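Lab notebook page, bench 4
Experiment: in silico fold of construct C2
Operator: M.H.
Input chain length: 105 residues
Purpose: comparison with the prior construct
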Amino acid sequence: MWRRWIRNLSIELHWMRRNIMRRWRLDTPTVVMGIITIISGCLLFIVIGNGISQIFRSFVPWVSGSRVGEVYWQSIGFGIKTSFIFLCFSCSLIVYILLKLSRRH
């Protein structure tokens, strides 16, 4: 009985996915790069917000001698995360714009 339900659900999901792809053409390079741009932009927004909140939290109790190393490595990690996500965002935005311009009808 469970196998029959699972089989019916998998068939339904297969046709739903196929209809969604056919209707909105989600498999084109422009749409894929647009989705990647939106996701990386949201991640960049979250990481920058997290970094700003950490900066404010670290300055509330002025950094003492034992926490200097911790704040230092947090700032290094924040810089690496931010630069990596910004690089992904910038590259995907550039590729998205190039794909949009090259597919002009």
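Observations: The radius of gyration is 22 Å. The mean pLDDT is 77.
Next step: discuss at group meeting.
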